[in-house]
Amino acid sequence: MNFFRHRPLALSAAPLVPALLLAVAGCSGDGGATVAAPRPDAKTAPLCRSLHEVLPTEVDGQHRADPEPRSVYTAGWGNPAIILRCGIVRPPKMVDPKVAQGQDPDAIAGGVNGVDWLMEKESDGTWRFTTSGRRAYVQLTLPKSLSGPDHSTQVLEDVGPAVKKAIPEGIASMRG
Fold first, then answer.
1. Which residues does UniProt assign to the signal peptide (predicted)?
2. How far apart (Å, rounded) are the C-alpha atoms in residues 87 and 150?
3. Which terminus of the chain faces fewer neighbouring Cβ atoms within 10 Å, N or C?
4. Residue 83 DSSP SS3
5. 92: which DSSP letter?
């Protein structure tokens, strides 16, 4: 992200002012989400593309508003956004014995309507949900304002049918 070049200062800065103003104006957005798109492997990518095709237009009453940069591996709803990423690398807590034994207060495994999820409370109060027992890892991140139990359950209920349709049960690639 840092693309700085040292240039000689012999040129006047005056001609650069309009260009800088345009650049700053072009960088200001509508407050939409920005998220890094996963880079799934060759086995996982087609599953994620299939998921993208069947995702709902509304989740927990929030309308679809995909994050930037646009990708078939990401989706979003609302502002602040509920973010979906498909083809992620396996989360470390997915294989943490403390989670499996119910000894991690910030992570628990569970299922909603036939889709199993690793549910993780983040340090900033948001929740992250990652599918387990599917051939691709699908991750949902809820903003703090939607991280209560009512919203979380509704989000998982709304996205679950698409996950069941597009991502078969099985073992996901560890790489994502």
1. 1-25
2. 27
3. N
4. strand
5. G
The alpha carbons of the chain give a radius of gyration, in whole angstroms, of 20
d(CA 147, CA 151): 6
Residue 126 has phi, psi (to 5 degrees) of -80, 165
Q: What is the Cα–Cα distance from 114 to 116, expressed in whole angstroms?
A: 7
Please count the residues of the chain: 176
d(CA 129, CA 152): 9
Q: How far is CA 98 from CA 64, 95, 102, 103, in A?
A: 36, 9, 6, 5
CB atoms within 10 A of CB 45: 17
